[in-house]
Design a protein that fits this description.
Elements: H1 2-6, H2 12-21, H3 28-50, H4 58-86, H5 90-94, H6 102-137
Helix pairs in contact: 3-4, 3-6, 4-6
Length: 138
């Protein structure tokens, strides 16, 4: 919501980081794309495990990452469609700030977020699901 209010290129905290680290652009949108990978991956993991769609392990990790990246790719397509329809407002909406690899780096941040879900939260998530199951059956 913050990015929508200011446009991602003009979010004040991003401008502060830009100034503090000497970045060429306001990278606030990268934080949003990191969360765009992390949050859907966590939700997908929860649903896939609870509904026993995929057993825990590497197949689960693959499906979780794939779903998170699919959501991020679809968002990038929506950005493109809106840019095509909005003509002059496209640059403000996209927030590329002249960075030709913006879409690819957005996807990389979503991938990083999904990997963080798996690597940093996966085992804890498994323990919590076991605790919930035991409480429900106990």
């Amino acid at each position: 919501m913050v990015g929508g209010h200011y446009t991602y290129a003009e979010v004040p905290i991003g401008e502060w980081f830009q100034s503090a680290f000497g970045w060429q652009r306001n990278n606030y949108d990268k934080f949003g794309h990191l969360l765009q990978g992390l949050v859907p991956a966590l939700v997908a993991r929860e649903v896939l495990v609870r509904l026993s769609v995929v057993p825990t392990g590497r197949w689960l990790d693959l499906f979780v990452i794939s779903l998170a990246l699919a959501i991020s790719a679809f968002y990038e397509l929506i950005e493109w469609w809106v840019a095509l329809l909005s003509d002059q407002a496209a640059e403000s909406f996209l927030g590329t700030q002249g960075y030709v690899w913006d879409t690819q780096s957005d996807m990389a941040m979503a991938l990083l977020g999904a990997l963080m879900t798996i690597l940093l939260l996966g085992k804890r998530h498994d323990r919590q699901l076991i605790e919930i199951d035991q409480a429900d059956n106990g």
